[in-house]
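2024-03-11 09:14:02 INFO queue: dequeued item IS200/IS605 family element transposase accessory protein TnpB, len=376
2024-03-11 09:14:02 INFO validating residues
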Amino acid sequence: MQTVTLHLKVQPNAWAWLDQACREVNTAWNWANETSRRAIQTYDDGGRWLSAYDLDKLAVGAGDCFERIGSDVIQRVNAELVTRRIQFRKPVLRFRASGGRRRALGWIPFKAANLRLKGNRLRFMGKSIRLFEMDRFLEHRLMAGAKLGSGNFAQNALGEWFLNVPVQMPYPAGTTFDANGIPQLPVAPIECLGIDLGLKAVVTTSEGQVFEPNRSYRDNEAKLGNLQRAGHKKQAKRLHQKIRNQRQDYNHKLSSALVSQGQWIKIGDVSTAFLGAGTRAKSARDAAHGQLKAFLHYKGHRAGRSVDVVDEKYTTQTCSACLSRTGPKGSTGLRVRQWICSACGASHERDINAARLIKAAAPRCRRPIAGTRELR
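2024-03-11 09:14:37 INFO prediction written
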């Protein structure tokens, strides 16, 4: 089975109801957050870290206190709180405000059983909800063997609501499987592909391909500034959303192109904090290296590729031919794009040389991925 996440816009007639349900979700989140904090600080032996099961037992009967959400939604809130607490390694997460300048964007998690299909609309906690792309939802939902997973309703900065739900679907007809049930997916033409992330070129591969950076923010920066100075907040938010969509679309196309080329993809562990410091902040945010890495990982898994992050330390200084550190060094050396190795005389283009070293580097942690073949 393969998983596809649907991102569908909800029609405006349900936005007001979802806004009120979101306030109840925020109340449940804040209760779970505060209860978890007290459990950690109360005990003398270092405190007790409550699990999602512990919070669920303490929240028994809380579903009767709310008008729009039930116990299933509260359990999903508790599970998400514990997951993010472990992810960020924090005893207390940020409380969700339902109003004011620091208001949290709407978010309503649910279990698969809470979302029911009735005719050409959905039923969620007794509320009828219509989608703009209902045909697309029905296409995946009614497919033979398809199964919905736990999802959520999410709100953007403009107040628009979207349905996000994963759907487990069978592989396309004609897909072959091995004795262990792992699908035999097509093999990429390049056995190993090194990727160097940067700003002047957002991606440079070990094969010499150079991808120019996305300039969605730079191209709209002047217009965005005029809207903000004029006080047109809603129009500025819409332009921000357009910039985000353009950036996301570019990274989707870029990641798909890279996954189609390399069977084993190695990415340099570029420091986003370093690239985003000083005068490089706008270019670093426009490049969205974190988003690109996430796309490469999940698309690589779906296509049967191995995607690993490797250490790129000294890749700009080391010669890929003789491994001597004769390249440009320090912050002043960033302006040097081409250099000649003084040890062996090899000529290098800075980013391509780094991508070749990344290709030869050992991965930090090699994890088996479904559909991949063993690389020797």
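2024-03-11 09:14:37 INFO annotate: The CA atoms of residues 4 and 110 lie 17 Å apart.
2024-03-11 09:14:38 INFO item closed
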